[in-house]
Write a structure and sequence with these properties.
- This protein is 34% helix and 16% strand.
- By secondary structure, it is of the alpha/beta class.
- It has one domain: 3-Layer(aba) Sandwich (Uracil-DNA Glycosylase, subunit E), CATH 3.40.470.
- Strands 2-1-3-5-4 form a five-stranded mixed β-sheet.
- β4 and β5 form a beta hairpin.
- The protein starts with 12 loop residues before the first strand and ends in a 6-residue tail after the last helix.
- The relative contact order is 0.19.
Length: 176
């Protein structure tokens, strides 16, 4: 059992998790723990105009947002994902990005970015692109990620919202 992909056509932002948590997979919804800050930050940042619950994850496509994971096997912790799963996941994710052609690929957590690109980075907008999409990295919204406060996470979501809005209105004229 895993979570379905939500990959709408004309996606503004494709959110990429590392892999589903066991609890979220059991619930059948992304970021299902009440302590996860994803759904709160999504609305508080202005990325979506309404508050959604994890049970409404399928509605993100109404706002030109998508959801997927680098690895689809659920675990209690991303530390349980094996290297060969990340290797296989890189190819599958690249194919999804090529097919969906989002404006922005947004990794929820540094680990997903590091495993996909095989390099380190900091949260925020990246200089690289993948299949034409801008790349953005959020600090993990998991409550286990005590290194980033709610305010810092919200700031990154607001930066993502601003980038989305610029790309929607100005297309490729955004500076690198």
């Amino acid at each position: 059992m895993t979570l379905p992909d939500y990959l709408p056509h004309h996606t503004d932002v494709l959110f990429v998790g590392i892999n589903p948590g066991s609890y979220s997979a059991q619930q059948g919804h992304y970021y299902a723990r009440a302590t996860n800050r994803f759904w709160w930050a999504l609305n508080a940042s202005g990325l979506i105009p309404v508050s959604l619950s994890p049970q409404e994850d399928w509605r993100l496509s109404q706002f030109a947002l998508g959801l997927t994971d680098l690895v689809k096997r659920p675990t209690n912790s991303a530390t349980h994902v094996r290297g060969e799963e990340f290797t296989a996941g890189r190819q599958v994710l690249a194919e999804k990005i090529a097919r969906v052609q989002p404006l922005i690929v947004c990794f929820n957590g540094l680990t997903g970015y590091r495993q996909f690109f095989q390099e380190n980075t900091q949260p925020g907008r990246q200089t690289r692109r993948v299949h034409g999409a801008w790349v953005f990295v959020l600090p993990s919204t998991s409550a286990r990620n005590a290194a980033y406060s709610r305010d810092v996470i919200l700031g990154h979501f607001r930066d993502l919202c601003a980038l989305r809005d610029v790309l929607r209105h100005h297309g490729e004229s955004t500076e690198g």
